[in-house]
Structure of Cystic fibrosis transmembrane conductance regulator:
Amino acid sequence: MERASKDGKTNPAATASLLSKIFFWWLNPLFKIGYKRRLEEDDMYEVLTEDRSDRLGQDLQRYWDLEVQRATKDMRTPRLTKVIIRCYWKSYAVLGFFTLVEEVIKVVQPVILGMMIQYFEKYDPNDKKALYETLGYAAALSICTIGLALLHHLYFYHVQRAGMKIRVAMCHMIYKKALCLSSSAMGKTTTGQIVNLLSNDVNKFDDVTIFLHFLWVGPLQAAVVVGLLWLEIGPSCLAGMVVLMFLMPVQTLFGRLFSKFRSKTAVLTDSRIRTMNEVVSGIRIIKMYAWEKPFAALVSEVRRKEISKIMSSSYLRGLNMASFFCASKIIVFITFTLYVLLGNTISASRVFVTVSLYTAVRLTVTLFFPSAIEKLFESRVSIRRIQEFLMLDEITKGSTALPQEEKKDASVEIQDLFCYWDKSLDAPSLQNVSLTLNSNQLLAVIGPVGAGKSSLLSSILGELPTEKGVLKVKGQLTYAAQQPWVFPGTIRSNILFGKELNPQKYEKVIRACALKRDLELLPDGDLTLIGDRGATLSGGQKARVNLARAVYQEADIYLLDDPLSAVDAEVGRHLFEQCICGLLKNKPRILVTHQLQYLKAADQILVLKEVFLQILVAVSASVIPGSSSQFCPSSSSSSTSGVIFLQTPETSASRRSHGEFPLGLLGRSEPSERGEVQKAFDAHRDLPQMTSVERVVEYTELENETPWETKRPPLIVVKGLVTSTTSTSLQQQWTLVLQDLAMFRPKEGWYCRRTGAGKAPGLSLFRLAEPRERSTPMVF
């Protein structure tokens, strides 16, 4: 993991004036750069303090912790919905006021327009009073139009920021929870579910915040419009409102169906992501056994079920939108048909006012209101899923680092420890274990497979719950896991793991962990990209990178889970002498090992058998606790730029003007024309979303693997032994990792070189990496 990138330029929004914020002038410098050239990451402004992920996450986490405490006291289930409301209701209520003002303006505009048209219907050139009143109406209509444009863009900018804040805070909480899950909790969730929560469920908060206020504004606006229409055209208005009222329960039903489909889709998406994760994790075995087609069929079937639910939801969404577009024509037709049948005469003012009022309420009642219901039900499903995840068990809080003057007092004390991975099982994972480890001591833990050696380290880390006994840890822990863990990136970033680079210390760690020679052989040294799951490293190299990461962290206590098993005897001796008993000699160390030749150097030997402590003899890091906070600030930078650029085309659209046009049509068409122009800019704004399609296309154009079957070269039969030479590199531009490899003997073969010598690339024989050169096989 590379350190978070340096902060961008100071955000001008922090010091912008009121006018600059209203008209978005603070974005003009960015527009100028974008006009001259393509925007780069360094051109972006730094995130505002109030929008940073660490601050947002901590605020929401504090409310969640209070809710958990209250729920525990009241013996009920904590409710995440209450937490969100308590944390954000004040700022969101202010946005509700602006929503109300905007909808009031939309209702007032048709009324003013009708008064202006009445003046021209009853035109009297000598009536100066009516002229001045009409000019006042025109000024009021202009003010309403300008105010509506400003309010609309400000509202959507801030309401999208509100959704972004909730989303980022939720991601922060989910991420922290994922790092703290206990082993029992890991059995109740999957990687696919966590990925789905972070990629899909949290996005519902961006949508629901936009439309939520229309749940109360919509009915209120409809009631006001009914009153105005009654004054304008009498009982005929009820015909159109009946159509609107009929659509509301239908769309509520659609919202419930959306919720149902969302629940089913989320479960299927979890399953699909989990399946894909398992396939990718085991892709080497799948390729070796030529199981691609069966597993491709398995993934396709899971995806087919997911797509079927998504399509059903899309059909409903299409019906929902169709009702919006059809409603306006049907409403106007029914209303004026009934109006004429009742013996009334149609006038221009009544038509324009009525149609404009219907347009205003139609947008709210048949689009925003049902969208609010749809997004509300979908967000309820997401909240329930996130809440269930946040309620999973956590490991106990890790110990903190000791001050420099207390480093020599680091220790581990265990007395009569009993631990269970699963309490439903009768057999404990550890039983009657006692030990004391002080500073400068090395404790070697040995025992057969399944004796509880890794469980002992897990209990010290706090991942294995303590059922009975005493466990005291004084000092910060670092853990090197039995299964090496690396992430896609450079070797250096895997070792530093977010720490500052200290060249002298880094060089000592590299030499102590026997990585110096390996780095010299790699094309880019420690800046070599190791690929997903360390695909370009051997098992021994990954184990040493894993150990180097733990050593570089400079912790107080080191827990080493069999780091010598993946390396050869020579490298293992180097690691033990130069690293475990050399660089770490002044630290408390617990070493799990099967290498009995190193026991003579241990201060204590702990023998475990069937989870019992057999004997304690005194002789003469994948996840580092506390490091999760390093990730929090880095998730802020990508959260606000989208909100800014969602608004910039709308700001441009609000500056458009119209030429001369007949008054009635001008007043009636101005909102719709503005809306159409807005839609055009929105479409241009959404064009960057095609980046997803571009990435998919780019992925399909990657170099394909060789054909499913290859033609075997002709054999040259001599005696009976098969021989062939091959040369292979992991990437085309890299140097050869296998050169002139010769295979012979008919039934058996072996590799016995040192770690990192090229044994793993021998899998090129399984065509996981196509050989560059291959000679003609010969049978002797």
Notes: The domain at 48-394+629-698 is CATH 1.20.1560.10 (ABC transporter transmembrane region fold). Residues 620-631, 642-666, 715-723, 776-780 have pLDDT under 50 and may be disordered. The chain has three domains: 48-394+629-698, 404-486+539-625, 716-779.
